[in-house]
Batch of 4 targets.
Target 1
Amino acid sequence: MTIKLENVGIAVRDIEATISFFTDLGLTVLGRDEISGEWADTAVGLDGNHAKIAVLQTPDGQGQLELFEYIRPEAIETEPTLPNEIGMHRVAFSVDDIDESLVIAARHGCHPLRGVANYQDVYKLSYVRGPSGIIVMLAQDLTKS
């Protein structure tokens, strides 16, 4: 049996703001749609499922995010995830310049949870609280600088 990771799906509060954040970081929009109907109800397990979706791809073509903004049923607000909570933890990206990436994130009102760490002079990394409370890890490989 072959298995391949297709994407990571994330329900968001505001799909336009989230697309803007991730495209400014360098991802590109592959497609957008609205989904609904019996097939969507069955696949997702929600009656009356209706959502705006967008698929974004990393510049290397290897990673994809699928964003969902629910129209029906109404989205359920939760507290922002903490790094040690069980469940979806974070989305991680390698970046060429973490400082530039943090400036881009800040333009969207998204800031590090604490700061920028240096892991054994191999990586500089930071967890950023992104749109809809998504934790986004940005990591710069210092061995490639």
Target 2
Amino acid sequence: MPAIIQSDSDTVRNHVCERLIKPAMQRGERTVAVNVGVVHKALGLHNRVPLVCAALKSKKFLEEQGLRILSTTGPPSGQSTTVTFTYEILTPNVRSTANPLNSLRGVAKELFKQLGGGEQFIRSERDKFAGERQK
């Protein structure tokens, strides 16, 4: 299987998502501020400030993370390590690490108890199915 090559922009977006956006969402915060210089340094980039700025204000990043830019501080060029984007978190992250099936855990516990337990229920269903196939 060939390795998936990630673009530098995707690397920036994924880093910010994993290190800043998701933790802010888990803490229940409604806003999060991201400094371009901090991201640039954390990723060990050299002379890639415009790329970081573009990745952090891209439509792709905003839509994937459910964000809206509230403010941008820094020089008028918008291309500096001093640029800070403040985002409003609009929607919970759809790529949350929590398994959505966990909310269903135990939902049929009482029903299976009345039927003699989960294993007994499955055994009886298999017997019914096998009996119908033999007819």
Target 3
Amino acid sequence: MALKYEILKKVGKSRLGKLHTRHGVVDTPAFMPVGTCGTVKAMMPESVAATGAQILLGNTYHLMLRPGADLVEKMGGLHKFMNWDKPILTDSGGFQVMSLSGLRKLTEEGVTFKSHVDGKKFFLTPEESMKIQHKLDSNITMCLDECTPFPATYEEAKKSMEMSMRWAKRSKEAFVDRDGYGLFGIQQGSVFEDLRQQSADALREIGFDGYAIGGLAVGEGQEEMFKALDYAPGMLPEDKPRYLMGVGRPDDIVGAVLRGVDMFDCVMPTRSGRTAQAFTKYGALNIRNARHKEDDRPLEEGCDCPLCVNYTRAYIHHLQKCNEVLAVMLLTWHNIRYYQRLMQGLRNALANDTLDEYVSEFYKNQAKGDIPEL
């Protein structure tokens, strides 16, 4: 396979590793900021790199609609188009298409859907998804799958999973293998352990450069998600990276790392930056709250992002009240930097045999909360 993955150390189920791609190395556990349309909202690519992010996620669905895969290819690929010289993972477009519900029709061959932008009709198959992601020049291509909704009956989950496995085989056959690029299969099966095992067995048989765990964080709640993660990662090949799609909150990530997951993505840090929510070691806070109005402290003591180094809570509260775009930019930068600091902390703890202490301190601080004691 074209991607190289090294496991440097294991502590329990947790893994410290390196993923080698054509556009650089990704240290794992890793968090990927989401760059839906070829941009991480409110951030320049150079700023995203400054947070410590080593890999971004691009969205096949949105990029195929605007500006179109042919144009991105003509511009030299997504790396050059958006000025990001590090690795890129693109999702298959399946999740967004499935969420269109009334605007799409699903068959064995693929899915027909109408663009939410202009109503134009598209037909997305596993083969077409591979072709589009190839044109985007993403280092990690994802198989086209059906993201099983929650809740789903056993029979619904089984039927959905089995079609996704057939699509995975077609995706593998259509993928153009080349040095420094790879294809990830996606495990499905909802919250049913035997279906997850069947899915993992099918994916192993096909053979991939990495394996994703799909169909979680779709409404089942953290308790159910962790129950599935107690067994799902271990069903996948030990020597390949494991990617939990669409996760999540900081405590979701910590819990998943303890269960053997290596890679994550989520819109939460960027979306929260647009809604006045900031993540800190003491949990999330809403900077719009009146208690920040005259607070001359940084958002988080010890954080090295531009917001925390240069500005006070009172100032960012003021910017939010005035709906200034600078508030969104600074909060987004802080949130992405927080996530990267979290991942670096987990990697350091794995390397130094202090994972238990790090996790204990993480949960202790989260429970303490941000409001100072009187």
Target 4
Amino acid sequence: MTFLKGRFARLSVVACAALLLTSCRVDQSVYLTVEPNGSGEVTVVITANKDIVAKAPNLAADLRTDDLVEAGWEVTKPVKTKTGGLTVTLVRPFRNPAEANIALSQVNGPKGPLHEMVVTRSGKDTNSQWSLAGRLEVTGGLEAFIDDAGLELVGAAPYLANVQEAGLDLGDAVGITFTAALPGTIDQSTGVKGEGLVSWAVPMDGSKIDIATTSTNVDVVSSISRVGKVLLLGLLVLWIAATLVLLMLVGNARQRRSRPPTRL
């Protein structure tokens, strides 16, 4: 069972129950934030609207997050929204791109919404290139929100028959967005560019989106600082050399003055 999917995708399943279908909704936002040194965090924010909370009043108490904490996730207690809903926030820090890829892989299982997500970095500290590859896709409809073990046990996704009878669109009950903030300036992306970030809405109809994104980070301050250090070092060497030459000239002058005059 994948960590996040095993615990929190149930909110999305509850959202699709058709006695309640037209008003219940779960929104999930996944944020990837990468710092210039390769560290950062993956944040997942899951919000169930007031209709779900009203129909499942024990939802906050029923959530179990021990396995998430063991996997390195920081989990906040459920917080009520201003509109009467419920929000849970999970954060997974990472130290390098390899750990970022592990964190992204834990967000869901093989059916989505994040597939083959890979963060890579090349170049120097002061001039680096970043790449984010992968795709966004939800396959299997409602079955994407239940792990394989649960699906094998019950034989079908919960409330699937209700959803089919009501002719509902999965996207009416579940919304997922993915946002990435990479170091530097975004060179190209398939997402919607914002100030220092790119975002995508995950399609819920089985279609897929390639998230190919690249950025270039030039640390101007560090570059100037390094050049400045070289210049200062050069000036210091020149100053020392000039001082030594001056001392030698002064020494020679004193020696000439101290010599007795030559008699013919």
